[in-house]
Design a protein that fits this description.
Layout (H helix, E strand, L loop, with lengths): L4 E5 L4 H13 L5 E4 H9 L8 E7 L6 H6 L4 E3 L6 E4 L2 E8 L4 H4 L4 H16 L1 E7 L6 E6 L2 H14 L5 H18 L4 H6 L4 H16 L2 H10 L9 H15 L1
Amino acid sequence: MPSGSEVVLAGPAMVPLVRAVRELSEAGLGRFAVVGGVAVSARLGSAHRATADVDTVVDETTPPDAVEALLGRDHAEADPVAPHRVFLHGTKVEILGVGPLEDSDLADLPDHDALFVAAHAWGLERATDLTITASDERGLRATAPFATASGLVAMKLHAIQTRSPASLHKRGGDAWDLYRLLVDLDGSGDVRGDLASAPPLMRRLLIEAVQRVLIDGAARTVGWLRVSDVATGPVSAEELRFLAAPLVDALG
């Protein structure tokens, strides 16, 4: 979906999320990007599954401090147990700081950690503006930078592998996000084409993640879908492998 597009998100659950994104856009954060479930819904153009918070990546190398800036807003509250978290009008906003990266910065990190950092830095770097509107509250809209589909695929490939064993429903949500992003937005190769321009180390980490999650582990990923609380419809392991093959080819 191109920069500047407007997306209407239906349902009462979208109202507080759009309001929180509007607060982010008005807080003077500098370089930031909305990621996570809200960004997936925005890129898909519909609230395809439930989400209750807003995840945000910020450039931690430039002022202002994102948490301090958000706490200066009306109706903002700090989380006493999580210094990276702020509640805006009661909606949880998670802040992750990243900075410019070279492959050499990631060389000594374990692969899971390296993919986490690289994917979020990529999501920030490639973000483009979208305007989201809450259809259930007249006049409520927000324009902000959102991670592109390629950034979201990279982040979801990390997240689905590192959830706690008790978070099967979250793994199911990650799997559904990956499926929908690839089915809906990579038909013409836009997602894999963008990821093919990522730095070499990130591409290598993504190939390994795709292999584990969508090819070798396709049956397990389908199992996560089936036990999740997401209304996914039928998805087979063969379909996941079919979606993953051109992505691996493009990254290789």
